[in-house]
Amino acid sequence: MKVLVVGGGGREHALAWKIKQSPRVERVFVAPGNAGTAIDAENVAIGDADVPALVKFAKDNAIDLAVIGPESSLAVGIVDALSAAGIKAFGPSKQAAELEASKVFCKNLLRHADVPTADFRTFRDAASATAYLVEREDQPMVVKADGLAAGKGVIVCETKAEALEAVQRIAGDREFGAAGSQLVVEERLVGEEASVLAITDGRNIITLPAAQDHKAAYDGDRGPNTGGMGAYSPAPLVTPALLEQIQERILVPTIHQMKRSRRPFRGILYAGLMVTKHGIKVLEYNVRFGDPECQPILMRLQSDLVDVLEATVDGKLDEIAPLVWDERPAVCVVMASEGYPGKYQTGRPIRGLEQAAAIPDVKVFHAGTTLKGDQVVTNGGRVLGVTGLGATIAQAKLQAYTAVKQIRWEGAWCRKDISDKAHA
């Protein structure tokens, strides 16, 4: 088999690395890839949203399966285009991808499916959202840009003044561009966050072990939201009983409602959840593997990923054997560029990758990297996802941070407390 992975981040490196392990696969291409995928696969110089060029490459190279990583590629309909060209593609259609691409669509669907979520209102402009907030009592709120904003279009506000400022940034100043053409204002939920990813072919669901992401930039969950500063799996917070409840009350009703809406969903359904004292509630849905949740989850997967992806596309998930997992937990620590999630420099040489790779039960997944000659240099805000396995979560954390200490570049930083919530 020949497989094309679309994307260039840490998630795509993890996917390419895992797919390459399948005895059924002879070649793995990654478009556009990064310095890590250049080692574990073959990079193709095509942007992940250049649909015509990707379809042409897939046809010219007789690709047997395309696996789409980024939400932006799914939102422009790459799965539809590849399928129309006779290429098997893993991921939801453009219409189904609206579950992530439009927070307004998602919240309305949750309401119709009777899936628990935060109370909310949707608005088409800054003036109406401002008028609504002015009349409300001063309480913590969350303001969300409707469209895709690379994980940064959600502003958590402690006060009414902060919420009004968030509305102005999103819908007035258009800080996130077209993503701010509509917005959601919702109550702020209090509790512990967890991520549950499920693979579905539209009829059958395989729920993956829970993970916990760390969205805030700094230790103790302080600072601005990022695309994710680290993750670990499994998350003790999500017990087997709670996982069953999530499947029955959240995932299954959502997939049924998508079918009723004539947007059948195939691919990864990623539920961002808040475990509150009033029960579990959906914060948001993503329609692809999370980044960095993908890294620790795939580090633990022992089954052939290609079998699972292909069965999803073919609508035959009920025919594959139960997935096999390494019982050891995995912890992924994101190393970022100075200034992230704001402005940052690129092109800084990275040292110590070989030393980190030599540590047992560690894999360094590349995200924002590129090659400058033979030198790996930084090329993004989130640069590496250093992932370790261990007999316990504490041991997995130690493995990951031992590897982190080997890696250096000017301005490198990371959170020091990834996975500590597991012991709280």
From TrEMBL:
Catalytic activity: 5-phospho-beta-D-ribosylamine + glycine + ATP = N(1)-(5-phospho-beta-D-ribosyl)glycinamide + ADP + phosphate + H(+)
Gene of this entry: purD
EC number: 6.3.4.13
Cofactor: Mn(2+); Mg(2+)
UniProt similarity note: Belongs to the GARS family.
GO biological process, one term: 'de novo' IMP biosynthetic process
One MF term in the entry's GO annotations: metal ion binding
InterPro entries listed in its UniProt record: ATP-grasp, ATP_grasp_subdomain_1, PreATP-grasp_dom_sf, PRibGlycinamid_synth_ATP-grasp, PRibGlycinamide_synth, PRibGlycinamide_synth_C-dom, PRibGlycinamide_synth_C_sf, PRibGlycinamide_synth_CS
Keywords attached to this entry: ATP-binding, Ligase, Manganese, Metal-binding, Nucleotide-binding, Purine biosynthesis
Domain ATP-grasp: residue ranges: 107-314
Pathway per the UniProt entry: Purine metabolism; IMP biosynthesis via de novo pathway; N(1)-(5-phospho-D-ribosyl)glycinamide from 5-phospho-alpha-D-ribose 1-diphosphate: step 2/2
PANTHER family: PHOSPHORIBOSYLAMINE--GLYCINE LIGASE, PHOSPHORIBOSYLAMINE--GLYCINE LIGASE, CHLOROPLASTIC
Enzyme class: ligase
Protein name: Phosphoribosylamine--glycine ligase
Any single Pfam family the record assigns to this protein: GARS_A
